[in-house]
Amino acid sequence: MTEQTPFVEIACQQVMVEDSSVFSIQWTDLPVASAGGLSAPVLLDRYLYYLRKYTLTLIRPVKLESGIEFRLMTSDLCLIRFLPPSYTEDFVTLRICGGFLVQPHQCVRGEFHFGVESFPEHVRVSLQLTDFCPLILGSPAPSWTRFWLYRLTQAAIHRLVTVRFLTSLYHELVDSSGRVRIVNVAVRAGRAV
To answer: Which of 7, 76, 106, 134 is the most exposed place for a label (fewest CB within 10 A)?
Structure first.
């Protein structure tokens, strides 16, 4: 009898909340013994490296004194601009402050959180986007067409990248090749994207 490979569970939720901003969270739980040396700043660095590698430099994270920019390939076109990271014990937060993919009048809204939280039986690694106002949605009252365009493009890409990143991290740290199981969670109320 062959032993089944365990699943890597990735919890996910992506919703448009009442004010038409986007909330997105993905997390996985690592065994405590496998997460040694992993911290929120390390998680951020690994994510930036992974984003560049996974997108074949289509998205190029650039660290500057003024913050971090996600640029399009080798151009200076900034897709999303963040202020310098702020740190707490378990999280690194990047505050959105502009970029081509952000609604112009909502540039000071939105945060991207990278978390590494320790619990008695596991370490939770999470990526969370809050209060993000994508340009594709266009306004606080997006049309049906804009909502679906966002859902099928930018939202789908963000989910794919974060899920693959967390899967890759899990496989590397746990030394596992388990299949991925997406677990839909309900952290905040909203319309699924």
So the answer is: 76
